[in-house]
Amino acid sequence: NKLGYNQRGEGHQKSIQRSIENLKSKINEIESTPLHHPKPKSITGLHFLNVPLNSDVALSFDGLSKSFGDKVIFSNYTNRLHKGERVVITGPNGSGKSTLLALAAGCLPLDNGSIRKCGSVKIAYLDQEVKRLPMDKTPLEYFFSSFNLLEDDLVKELYKAGLGNFDLIKCRFKNLSTGQRKRLMILSLILSKPNILLLDEPTNHLDLETLGWFQEHL
What we know:
This protein is an alpha+beta fold.
């Protein structure tokens, strides 16, 4: 009986030793490929910088006209955007809201009229469906070419933006969700250090936490 007990005890000890070795192996594997950051819960790390605007009038719209085929979107539109103003453009679908923002951003040609910008103006434009991002590029390629961000630097910025899935930096924009693309575009807006924001339906495709952050910073 004593001999049998000792043999069983020895087998049990070997089993424990094997378990310990397996755990050590798993720990070594985890430590060899650490995560850069834990998955963040919010985008509270992002902040718009206060970039000076050296004029009381930021943008002047003088006699703008724009049509698509036979459809006149607006004609002889004149207005001013002043320093410090927050303007909300409202109207039914097709009334020209997105067109006006795209014209102000220089993304569409004017039919007639002019848009004058003061010398220190730097515009950042968020389009409605976030289609201005290069869809065939990855965020890693885009942020390197636009802002000279290397992978480690981009990962840090993604952490601030609440984008914890760092694998997405090597996915093409076209394969990301609209919400992911919008957060990346918001990051792009901030990195561009603008003093005028043109935002087309900015609250679409954003979660409640991001909406709260966006409202506070705007």
